[in-house]
Amino acid sequence: MIGGMSRIVRTMTTLIFGFIMVYGFYVIAHGHLSPGGGFQGGAIVASAFALLLVTYGTSQIQSFLSKDLLSILESTGLVLFITFAFLGLGATFFYNFVSNSGGLFGTPSAIGVNPGDLNTGGTITLMNMAVGLEVLAALGVIVLTMSVASETIHKKEKQ
Amino acid sequence: MSPLLSIAHIVVLVIMIVAAILAVVLRDLLSSVIALAAASLLLALEYYLLHAPDVAIAEAGIGAALTMAIYIFAIRATKK
């Protein structure tokens, strides 16, 4: 059972994996327009990592998912979040200084019923991306650690 | 609430209770975990029917997917 499930599970994983990742990043990027946001999208991407680990086992995945890289990504997400909060300190903490500025994510939002523009929201969008990075790395490192631990215990019991 | 929506609520909740009972009764550990994940996924559907799509996405991602993966890792560490 260690290091791979049946061929049906492996084929379905290779088919589905990319779509789950893209859906997770879609939920993160559209967090200010539609249901979901950084936390939910990060959890979806982390569930794609979990699917990969359940199907192939740790030994084949460890070149793709390294614990150190995920830890660095987690810290980066947290630092980015608090940086965006402090950058608004000219007015107040967490001030939305990007919105209505005209640049990236700075388009003024239309009044009334409209389908929604992705290029609005200001720091809300940027903070959603920071939270998404943090959550996908944190949940990924939890799942990776548990997978490594379960295989070590299994090897020890075999001896 | 329209009668069709009431029927949908009742059907989802009844299947959820059946899945929860199966998770307790089943002897095979992997089947029991899959029944638990099915109950969690139906709970996400029920959140969506109650107009809480944010909670539904979080429940489907964490309750159904990640919890099931961690249970499968725990089962891998045991002997048959």
Structure notes:
The complex is a heterodimer of chains A (159) and B (80). Chain A is mainly alpha-helical and 159 residues long. Chain A has one domain (7-107, 123-158). Chain A is built from five helices and no strands. Chain A has helices spanning 7-29, 38-56, 58-61, 67-87, 123-158. Chain A is elongated. The model of chain A has no long low-confidence stretch (mean pLDDT 88). Chain B is mainly alpha-helical and 80 residues long. Chain B contains three helices and no strands. The radius of gyration of chain B is 14 Å and the shape is flat. Chain B has helices spanning 3-25, 29-49, 53-76. Chains A and B meet through helix 2 and helix 5 of A and helix 3 of B.
Layout of SSEs?
The complex is a heterodimer of chains A (159) and B (80).
Chain A: H1 7-29, H2 38-56, H3 58-61, H4 67-87, H5 123-158
Chain B: H1 3-25, H2 29-49, H3 53-76
Helix pairs in contact in B: 1-2, 2-3
Question: Outline of this structure?
Answer:
The complex is a heterodimer of chains A (159) and B (80). In chain A, 65% of the residues lie in helices and 0% in strands.
Radius of gyration of chain B: 14 Å
Low confidence ranges of chain A? none
The string of secondary-structure elements of chain B, in order, is HHH
Secondary structure class of chain A reads mainly alpha
Q: Can you give the mean pLDDT of chain A?
A: 88
What is the domain total for the residues of chain B?
1
Beta-strand segment tally of chain A: 0
Tell me the strand percentage band of chain A. Answer: under 5%
Helix percentage range of chain B? over 70%
Order of helices and strands of chain A: HHHHH
| Beta strand count of chain B | 0
Helices and strands of chain B: which structural class? mainly alpha
Shape descriptor of chain A reads: elongated
Radius of gyration of chain A (Å): 19 Å
What general form of chain B does the structure show? flat
Show the largest interface. A-B, 26 and 17 residues
Unreliable stretches covering 5 or more consecutive residues of chain B: none
Count of separate structural domains of chain A: 1
Assembly form of the protein: heterodimer
Amino-to-carboxy terminus distance of chain A? 16 Å
